[in-house]
């Protein structure tokens, strides 16, 4: 089992930046594929970005490509999401997730561990 705790959310103006962190405890997260998802009010949870166990493979949703960067520090059991040039439509609760079954995962059902989420609000 691994427990995930996100931090770093907040209120930022459009065009600004935030860096989200996800601290993993319990079993080492280095054996897990990890990803970020988000859910805006009234909308379904959507995939944002994924990173493989080895950190060598990353993928991004088209809506964030070129603006967001996912990374992980396996030595510190921490996942990051660097968000630049934020837009009001990026406003959502952001969740980190870990998959114990896959080396790399793009879809929510493939993840079996979730954090509680951190709110990101981008004002126009």
Describe what you observe in this structure.
There is one protein chain. The protein has 124 residues and is an all-beta fold. The protein has strands at residues 2-7, 10-13, 18-26, 33-39, 46-51, 58-60, 68-73, 78-83, 92-99, 113-114, 118-123. It is globular and about 40 Å long. The N and C termini lie far apart (40 Å).
**Biggest sheet, in brief?**
7 strands, mixed
Order of helices and strands: EEEEEEEEEEE
What would you report as the Rg, rounded to the nearest angstrom? 13 Å
- In the predicted model, the low-confidence regions spanning at least 5 consecutive residues are none
Helix share of residues?
under 10%
Total of helices: 0
Task: Break the fold down into its secondary structure elements and pairings.
Layout: E1 2-7, E2 10-13, E3 18-26, E4 33-39, E5 46-51, E6 58-60, E7 68-73, E8 78-83, E9 92-99, E10 113-114, E11 118-123
Parallel strand pairs: 2-11
Antiparallel strand pairs: 1-3, 3-8, 4-5, 4-9, 5-6, 7-8, 9-10, 9-11
Please name the defining characteristics of this protein.
124 residues; mainly beta; 7-stranded mixed sheet; 4-stranded antiparallel sheet; 11 strands; globular
Quick take:
With 124 residues, this protein is mostly beta strands.
């Amino acid at each position: 089992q691994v427990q995930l705790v996100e931090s770093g959310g907040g209120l930022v103006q459009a065009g600004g930046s935030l860096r989200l962190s996800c601290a993993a405890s319990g079993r080492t997260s280095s054996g897990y594929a990890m990803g970020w998802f988000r859910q805006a009010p009234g909308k379904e949870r959507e995939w944002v970005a994924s990173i493989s166990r080895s950190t060598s493979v990353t993928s991004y949703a088209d809506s964030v490509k070129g603006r967001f960067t996912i990374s992980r520090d396996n030595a510190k059991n921490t996942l990051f999401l660097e968000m630049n040039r934020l837009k009001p439509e990026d406003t959502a609760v952001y969740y980190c997730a870990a998959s114990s079954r896959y080396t790399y995962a793009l879809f929510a059902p493939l993840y079996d561990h979730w954090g509680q989420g951190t709110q990101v609000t981008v004002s126009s």
